[in-house]
Amino acid sequence: MPTDHTGERPAPRSARASIAAAISTSLEWYDFFIYSTAAALVFNVTFFATDSTVVSALNSFATVAVGFIARPIGGILAGQLGDRYGRKPVLVGAVCLMAVATFLIGCVPNTQTVWLAPTLLVILRICQGLAVGGQWGGAVLIATENAPAHLRGFYGSFAQLGVPIGLVLGNVAFLLATGLSSSDAFLSWVWRIPFWISLVMLPVAFAIHRFLEETPEFKAVAAKIAQTPEVQRSPMLDVIRRNPGTILMAAGANTIGIVFFYIMITGSVQFVTTYLDVARSTVLTWILISCVVMVPLVPAFGWLSDRVGRKLVFAIGSAAMMIWAIPMWLLIGSSSPTSIWPFAVAVLVGVVAMALQTGTQGTLFAELFPPEIRFSGASLGYQISAIVGGFAPFVMVAIINGNPDNAWRVGLFLTLLAAASLLCLYVIVKKRYHGDFDSQVSAGVDDAQPPAQPVR
């Protein structure tokens, strides 16, 4: 087996990097998701309680959205640092920030000062958003840039495994918290335990710092920059100047996946527990099962993208979400405490559609930009779409407006977003954006190989 300029064989390096990416993203997303679950189940009846369930839910989900607004800022900061100083230190810093912020959310006091707890939650949620904004690009590039070109879809998908695994961990934590405590105890203090557990991320950050090498592609770029006497430009400004259309189209193509996901795993929980009187534990159990189903599908579709192309698999995912959106929400709306199967079918089919995009999006975004601005470009495109996703549960509550018969309108909203995603993806294909393999080879990445097709 050929070796790269580090003297290490690509396969062991790829496996180690992909495992590190999967573990770090799983813990990051666990922390980010448990806030959304707490917002749906706890904060709306504690810190944001009002006489109106709609107003309480809107206020609670508004703080969820704050984290998404902060994500592009985190992506910008991380892109600047990641393209100049390396992928690994940014990933380590993001993991540490997320661990501390999430732990402190679990320490927010119940107080008679009505503004204090919401203010603290907003500040800490911003820190979570900054951490996720930095973590995603670092993890994806750690996985993809350490992988052989012909297996980048497969290895890159491991960074995306953090989404379903993190959600599984979060739901297990809340299922145990709700199942092992009374309702009053859960709302009083037990909900804090899943947040306190996040401190386990600090040893993970140390392990990544201690045992994981920087990616060969960044080492090659850093060596080239060091030999160039000209003053470096800002990577973020450079990518915006050179690739504004790519960033916007990538963000547009990715929006449906993020909105679909958060409306399904957060919005639907609030909907069926508030309006249909379905037990919290029942809903969380089916969300948990659906995410377990999603875990093997993500690398499977990542592998498929190595065979047939990223954009084709990604497009099938958008089309599947467009077709399923309205039936999914008609099923969710017809669920009841004695008939949960419509909800189960809705989310199980939904995760299959989402996995088509989730398994390919990291590698697809990375391949749209050259190595010297890749962290900035991929992060910015992904995190811009996250802003819309963060407001998705808020929009869902407004669309339903207290009337469960309006559930189908949420499906229509998702259908229109999926159509827009396909249009943005068509523009990407039409302009023939594709992987920067030629520059990788010239930069000295020995295991880079030209793609089987000119445009994937």
Automatic annotation (TrEMBL):
It comes from the Bacteria. SUPFAM superfamilies: MFS general substrate transporter. Keywords: Cell membrane, Membrane, Transmembrane, Transmembrane helix, Transport. GO terms for molecular function: transmembrane transporter activity. Residues 17-433 form the Major facilitator superfamily (MFS) profile domain. The keyword Transmembrane helix applies. Its main location: membrane. The chain crosses the membrane at residues 32-50, 56-78, 90-109, 115-142, 154-177, 189-209, 246-265, 285-305, 312-332, 338-359, 380-401, 407-429. The keyword Cell membrane applies. One of its GO terms (cellular component) is plasma membrane. Signal peptide: none annotated. PANTHER family: SHIKIMATE TRANSPORTER (PTHR43045). This is MFS transporter.
